[in-house]
Amino acid sequence: MVDAKVSDMDVVQNKGVVLHPNTGDVYSHVFLATGHNPPKRPKSRFPILDPESLTEKMVSKASKVCVLGTSLTAIDAILKINKQNPNIEIHLISRNGCFPKVQPLASQAKNDSFVSFIKNGIGSMSNITAERLVCLLNDGLNEHYDGNEKIVVSHEAKKEPHIDECINNLESDISRSIYSESCISSYLDSVHETFCDAWSNMSNKEKSLFMKKYNSSWMLNRHAMPLFNAIKIRNLLRFGKIKVSCMDIFHTEVFDGFIQKEGFDFIINCTSPSYAASDNTLISNLIDKRILKSDSNGGALVEIEYEDTFYLVGQLNKGKNFYTAAIEAVTESIRSNINLLTESSL
Ligand SMILES: Cc1cc2nc3c(=O)[nH]c(=O)nc-3n(C[C@H](O)[C@H](O)[C@H](O)COP(=O)(O)OP(=O)(O)OC[C@H]3O[C@@H](n4cnc5c(N)ncnc54)[C@H](O)[C@@H]3O)c2cc1C
After folding, report:
1. Ligand 1 nearest atom to the CA of residue 4, by list position
2. Tell me: the pLDDT tens digits for 24-33?
3. Which domain holds residue 33?
4. Which of 57, 68, 160, 343 has its CA 20 to 30 A from that of 99?
């Protein structure tokens, strides 16, 4: 094992691949599994930290902190901060102020009628567009799911959410979870494979449209948090330990004005990881060398002449497969690539 940050790679004709820094070895095949990129930072005159850089000492000294984002990473960060310093006030900022759904306490059986409805609907589409896909999902939910949630257009930053509204929404999701009522995330999870197949048959333009208009709503409804975390967040909201504001953090003037007024001890970026392959220096260098090309819908593609040498694993396949980062998808991707390799060498 080599413990180093690989900054670049060169293909040596008829030999293989060498790494920079040079390990002294030449490799016949390279699996690129560089994982997720950190989220994009808003342009701001205030320092913005990644969650990993947070130390217990920093948290213990702080009295008021700001967390950017309200989804799963933000929830983990809030719970960690609160555990280390229960007196701290945590101010959350996101565009919509919505928390993730709550995982059902008991695992739920698939709703076969919903799964068939989506499968048949996608099967009958000659041309899969973002709008048709979302319409189909919403029609299926309307017909087979008893909750109110739908996939909606990601909106501009909405007005301040009323804390009571946040608490009530969580309250209702928590009781659905406890009483094992159906949960939208289980429904969306049940059509995971069909959704990925549909995605791989969509044009780049339609993929981009989906990412722009619906990805945020899809992610919020698809990825639920554990019940235990939801109860903690609900309690922190009730006790006034968490405040929520809606804002577009990339609107620098408004963002900086807010941060200035509030005077936080530090700001942590818990927004979604960046899907842009070029945000990783190594991948960016391989794109410059035309070994890889960037995929506008996330991740990269291997240029045809290098397809027998370079294999992409995980998040780098985002544009091609949509669901790529979960441990299961990463393992499957490695397995199928290794199978391909062993078959070709037989
Ligand atoms: C906050 C967060 C929470 C998540 N929670 C879950 C979860 O609960 N369940 C789940 O299934 N998935 C979860 N995921 C998805 C997660 O991406 C995968 O589970 C898994 O970590 C992906 O594995 P990976 O090997 O592709 O990437 P990673 O685990 O990100 O590993 C990439 C590795 O490549 C190294 N690397 C990158 N560039 C270089 C370089 N130039 N030189 C050398 N080394 C380099 C990195 O240091 C890192 O060690 C989560 C993702 C995030 C961001």
Report:
1. 43
2. 899 999 999 9
3. 8-37+275-345
4. 57
